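Dear colleagues,

For the upcoming journal club I promised to circulate an example of a predicted protein-ligand complex. I picked one with zinc ion because it came up in last month's discussion. The inputs are reproduced below in full, followed by the predicted structure.
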Amino acid sequence: MKTLNPNDLGKKYLVEECRRIRIEDFLKVYRNKLKELILISELEISGIETELTTSKTCYNGIRFWFKCPLCGKRSGVLHVHPLTKSIGCRKCLNLEYRKRRYKGMVEGKLLDY
Ligand SMILES: [Zn+2]
């Protein structure tokens, strides 16, 4: 018995009429799941207790963020406070950058000349 070939139906179909199955779409899903599993695993190994959250990028991708344990907002960087050892975002731990702290002092010194 001869198997039915779609081209035997007498009409040629357009690519646009067919459902597309792209390997890239499958890889994208698994890549994101794999990234999430690796991130969660690394956090557990490092003993850092925080959750992850995501946002969508403009190209339909996913970007991962830390969820600050103190305020719950998403952050790309968390800090461990040197005294309390609590983990949080820069705002929650009331941290500032060295450059900002000494900015006034440097400018003041330059004005003395
Ligand atoms: Zn925070």
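Two points we might discuss: The two ends are 99 Å apart (CA to CA). The beta strands are 51-56, 62-67, 74-75, 79-80, 87-88.

See you all on Thursday,
B. R.
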